[in-house]
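Write out the 3D structure for:
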Amino acid sequence: MNSPLVVAEAGAEERIAAALAQLAGLETDFEPTPLWIGQPLHTVYIPADRLEPDIVRQWGDAAAQAAREAGGLVAIAHAMGVESGNSTTLSARVAQKLAEQPIEDLRVDFEDGYGYRSDEEEDAAALRAGEVLAAILAGPVAPDRVGLRVKPLDRRGAQRGARTLRLFLRSFLAASGTSAEMSRVRVTLAKVMNQSQVRVLGEVCLAIESEHDLAPGALGVELQVEVPHVIGGVTPEDALVTLSRHPRVRALHFGTYDYTSAQGIIPSQQRSTHPVARHATRVMQVAAAVNVIEVCDGSLNRLPVGDAEQRIAAWNAHAEMVRDGLQTGLPQGWDLHPAQLITRYLAAFDVLRAEAPDAQRRLRAALGLGHEDAAGAVLDEPATLRMLGALLARAIRRGALAADELAPGLSLELVERVARTGRAD
């Protein structure tokens, strides 16, 4: 005969099992996922009518020339506040980057940077863009990603945007001769306002993929956050966290000037670090984390042109924006001018290189690779270990750090494994 205790335990076990069974199939697991190991440091948008086959090399050469005219990369680094002991190595890494891969992510703009033109003109530009980007991807200084920004899916732009996307992809696939590069192609939807637009773009992409025998979902979509509607979440189904849940969405991009203008910010104060912009990008970060997609900051319209004083002031403003983005969880931003490549890489590489020594000490201590006094006061959890690994992997993948600069016991393979799992095994 069972004792009352045994009967009670059996009843409790059944009730607990029944309660836990209710979680079956629910997506309740969450692990911090540092996506940005391979995420570009920036995106360069070129108006469709200014796209040239050698545009990447042109930008790299123009950036190098601008640096020479300003006294060299070391001089610009000093003006940015980089410590003299670090400026030479940092500048050498940036010079190599400008020579080997000046643009990491190149987009052809058919929206604000291009405007509304005749159908014949935009048709021709879309076909040409596909050919040129296919050639650029096959070239010696290829970006990691390419793509286009189409017009909004509103009353005026919807038909035109869909047609441009279809013509572009037809031309791109014909010129590349393969669908293997599709993982490197993105389409950005400007001024997204509601779930219907995201759903319709998904259906348009699916139809185009079917037309070319591509796998469903092959074409990745990015949503550009430029209007308050999606940040405010006027209706639950149009809230950004819901819009970005669409399986085709890969990233959220911030449109600094449209968004701050919509909020009534005076022009002199429109910038990505304004409190209004920060609120929007923080909402974007939450939505991106929930849906495990990338997030990208906006641009700076203060260009490094004019006399020496004007250029230095613009470079410092740009460097501040780049640093702020990296330090606050916005690992990518937009660049609008070749000379901005200088401070994009100087500032980003400076942040990544400055973080690398501490990251290596803490990672080695956590993995038992040696006694690290400087890390002794930090007890890192697996989530932070992932970020330490991701930071080091990103520094190497982007060119800020050479693999042979890693401390003994660490390798690119190891830090990437830690970034994925929070463990070394």
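Residues 40-353 form a domain with the TIM Barrel fold (CATH 3.20.20.60).
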